[in-house]
Write a structure and sequence with these properties.
By secondary structure, this protein is mostly beta strands. Helix content is about 10%, strand content about 35%. Strand 5 and strand 6 form a beta hairpin. The longest helix has 8 residues. The chain is globular.
């Protein structure tokens, strides 16, 4: 039986509901490459890469709505939680429900907290303790993710 996760989803009316149990999305690298299309998107989302600062398409996006995972379309961040951190990457002070999980990242000679999509393990970026109220967190997210 496939592994399941508890996530919040968007219903037919466009509202975020849940949490509900859904199967974890697991694919091979070849399947992800085919689905994602762009080698840059694959490098960031599945290879834990980082886009250059101030170049992501979502950095200055001010549209209302929900930002979803590029890999599995799970809702990750509401536009109401977006803020300009000045870092060069889209920043949010909280995710949608528990749809984002964290794990320790010891790459590049430092210890950081990586953020991942709970349903498919897509690499989103990192979270830092220097964000605004009410959480004090800054989810620093790659636009590609």
């Amino acid at each position: 039986m496939p592994e399941t996760v508890r996530v919040h989803v968007v219903n037919e009316q466009g509202d975020i509901t849940g949490p509900i149990e859904q199967p974890k999305v697991v694919k091979t690298d070849a399947e992800w490459r085919e689905q994602l299309g762009s080698e840059e998107t694959f490098r960031v989302a599945r290879g834990k890469g980082t886009e250059r600062p101030f170049c992501g398409t979502l950095l200055d996006n001010k549209l209302d709505g929900v930002y979803c995972c590029v890999s599995c379309k799970l809702p990750l961040y509401d536009s109401n939680a977006k803020f300009n951190s000045g870092t060069g990457w889209p920043s949010f002070f909280q995710p949608v429900g528990d749809n984002v999980e964290v794990e320790e990242d010891r790459s590049h000679g430092m210890i950081r907290t990586e953020i991942l999509c709970r349903r498919c393990d897509c690499h989103l970026g990192h979270v830092f303790p220097d964000g605004p109220p009410p959480t004090g967190l800054r989810h620093c997210v790659n636009s590609e993710s």
